[in-house]
Amino acid sequence: IGAGIGADVPFALMGGTCRVRGVGDLMKALPPCPDCWFVVAMPSVGVSTPEAFARYDTMGSPVHPDCEAQEQAIRKNDLPGVCAAAGNALEHCSGADETPAICKTLRAHGAVTAQMTGSGAAVFGVFRDEGAARAAAQAAKRRWKQVYVAQPDRGGARVSR
């Protein structure tokens, strides 16, 4: 039922850490994500998902996330390994002009990795600790209005105030 509503709905309903395949409808539950914090920033301009996929079909992508390595890193509770295996094949062809600036801001404030979410336009950074995440969020809020700090848990990510 969830997949009929939207590709992200099954994951949102299941929550937690999952390996997702297909159009978001095939999920495998994994152990919890290693301890970390997220900062999510929304650029001032959105991304059209159909246009992003159309550009991907035309341009291709140099980015190929290693999902197997990422799953193994999650199983080993290895945050740097999780981040090293991450990648978003749509990021460079999404048309999200602010993504590089947001990623640069988050990395400058200690993000282990930073990249665009899904088909965009939001960008997330992964941080080892709450202090670094909150400092990065404050820096990002100087330029972008919608910036959130979250921490993963077994029920999925939640906004932290």
Number of strands: 7
Strand content: 15-25%
Profile the largest sheet: 5 strands, antiparallel
From the alpha carbons, calculate the radius of gyration and give it in angstroms: 15 Å
Structural class: alpha+beta
Strand line-up of the largest beta sheet = 4-5-3-6-7
Query: Which shape, going by the Cα principal axes?
Result: globular
The helix content is 25-40%
List the uncertain runs. Answer: none
Listing every helix as H and every strand as E from the N terminus to the C terminus, the arrangement reads: HHEEEHHHHEEHEE
* Cα end-to-end separation: 32 Å
Mean of pLDDT: 89
Counting H and I runs of at least 4 residues, what is the number of helices?
A: 7
Describe this structure in words.
Strands 4-5-3-6-7 form a five-stranded antiparallel β-sheet, with helices on one face. The chain is globular. The chain contains seven helices and seven strands; from the N terminus they run H-H-E-E-E-H-H-H-H-E-E-H-E-E. The chain starts with a helix and ends with a strand. Helix content is 37%, strand content 20%. The longest helix is centred in the C-terminal third of the chain and has 12 residues, at 130-141. Strand 6 (146-151) and strand 7 form a beta hairpin. The protein is α+β, with helices and mostly antiparallel strands.
